[in-house]
Amino acid sequence: MANRTKMSKRSELKDSPLIDITKKKFRWGDFLAEKIIKGVAFLSITIIILIFVFVFREAFPIFSSKSADHVNSVGNTAAGQETYGEVTDKPVAQDSQATYGEVTDQTATPKVVQGKDSVTAEPADSAYTVGAGSGFDSNQTALKSVLTKDWVPVSQKPRYGILALIVGTFKITIISMLFAAPLAIMAALYTASFAGKRMKEIIKPTIELLAGFPSVVIGFFALMILASVLQSVFHYDTRLNAFVGGIAMGIAAIPIIFTITEDALTAVPNSFYQASLALGASKWQTAFFVILPAATPGIFAAILLGIGRVFGETMIALMATGNAALMDLNPFTSVRTLAATIGAEMAEVVFGDTHYNVLFLIGSLLFIFTFILNAIAEFYVKGKLMKRIQGK
Amino acid sequence: MIKSFKKNIKGILIEGLTLSSALVIIAIVVVMITVIVIGGKNQITWEFLTSFPEDGMTKGGIFPAIYGTALLVIIMSVAAVPFGTITAIYLTEYAKENSIIAKTIRFAVRTLAVIPSIIYGLFGLGFFIKFVGTTMDNTFLGGQLKWGQPNILWASLTMALLTLPVVIVSVEEALKTVPNDLRAASLALGATKWQTIWKVVIPGSISGIMTGTILAVSRGAGEVAPILFTGVAYYVATLPASFSDQFMVLGYHIYVMTTQSANVDKTLPIQFGTTLVLLALTFILNISAIVLRYRIRKKKIN
Known about the structure:
The complex is a heterodimer of chains A (about 400) and B (about 300).
Chain A: H1 2-15, H2 28-41, H3 43-59, H4 66-78, H5 90-95, H6 97-100, H7 136-145, E1 151-152, E2 159-160, H8 163-194, H9 197-212, H10 215-234, H11 242-267, H12 270-278, H13 283-294, H14 296-312, H15 315-320, H16 338-345, H17 354-390
Antiparallel strand pairs in A: 1-2
Chain B: H1 2-40, H2 46-50, E1 53-54, E2 59-60, H3 63-94, H4 100-114, H5 117-140, H6 152-177, H7 180-188, H8 193-204, H9 206-222, H10 250-259, H11 268-301
Antiparallel strand pairs in B: 1-2
């Protein structure tokens, strides 16, 4: 193989002008190629920076000054109700608003009752976009209300309290990790330490297949089958709740946790294994007391990335969690996660409106959170793992 | 004797516990596939695959969704594969393994891989539609609204960003399997670095580039969150004919049918059918990628 390529290389070079090997010639082609390749390689860094800039830029107006925001909002209201995502068959989508599970304040009437509430003295012409025409005043309350627990974006007096959403997201994350992490780590330990070649050839492709499952398919499965099965087993009231959503997201997170844990386990040097066996430990003792502890930082990283996956998961959350922004710690009530809120509402908001900005603010939170998780997994954990394995 | 027996019992228990975890995961996968196949298999007919939805989506087929998905992944691949491949080439061929630049790029790629897909959607809306699109409209069309709204081009580009790390990682792995001897031989024969890459390294890793493309396509076909507000539509009566049209997608079709349609029960067979089509599509792609990758790894070992 190597020879053949060499031969073809040689015959090609015959056609090209002789190369003076004593002198290094400056080649424009090579120079340009290298510069272009280098430039393109920076693209991924550029994208990260752009994501930072543009997601934060749209979230920023919440904190901005009075006059600018007011002009902005009036201008946009006048420009008409732009919506994103859905074009036609709007009635069908609106009929089913209830499936989103908004709890209260759906009864937003288009008339502004003057003087009823001094804070929401909105301009009358912007009142037709329900909960959208945010003047400065309601914007101020919106900013104040971000840290409360009422998420009522579509109402005469919109409130954007994201605490319930945050609690819901964490609830689901914890449930899914309690389900997925032990399962995936145990399976990875089995694959790395006990499984024969045959078994490995079954497990690994299965995990890869699971990793390839589109999240909307897992969401569909959870919504149609898992929810009913779990309800008939545990007899709770709400069919779609944090528990169902958590299990479904756990299924989605299993491949990530499994793969990274397995990588960490197989990265433990063979000498650890042999030394342990030589000291008289059995296979399972070695696996449990030597290999597993040596790989803990890697397993920690696996769980962190699993959390990141669940935290940002949108489609499963939209389909299987019930989507009601309730704030309690009962695993069997409906929840609304941060990502699902963006997914469900972004298509219907008016561009430049407070609601729009709050959704971007939620996006920024998600972004920062996953970014930090990844950074921890990347630097802290990997450094520690390397140190431990190399015995420094 | 008793001690060793106790030790054995514990060993068997622990091995059994870990084995059963693995089996549970396999069972989950098998159950999911079985349920969806059983629910959808009667629905899959030639007509279902090639006709338009009828009667307010309660009858008819899913052709526009299949067409839209195909178009989406094609435009996405055209954007993502070259850039991903070039980044991988830079990382393996040009950058020094431990240089700060290479480390930063690798970190950026891994970060891109873990950013939630909904954030890409927000970015697509904020950057492509509201920034690039509106700027294009203002400069070329005098403020007329054409590019500053969701369409298939922006959706595909958003998806391309999402799948970029998939391509980079696969191609990088393949590039590393090209033996250094080949590079050295090519350089020794007087080929320049770029000639070596173009004529030796890339042909040697073409299957890796294909694996990356397939995985990216499979990911792109299944993701819905990034395109929720960058171009996908619940229903469009015509197939997308230009970059500025909206389009339908299999995954979004499933989502809309299950959560937003007026009578979920009536469309249940269509939901299962659509899910089966999407699952089959991603499976075929994934299995071919898995097979290709195992072949590459085998080559590396030999």
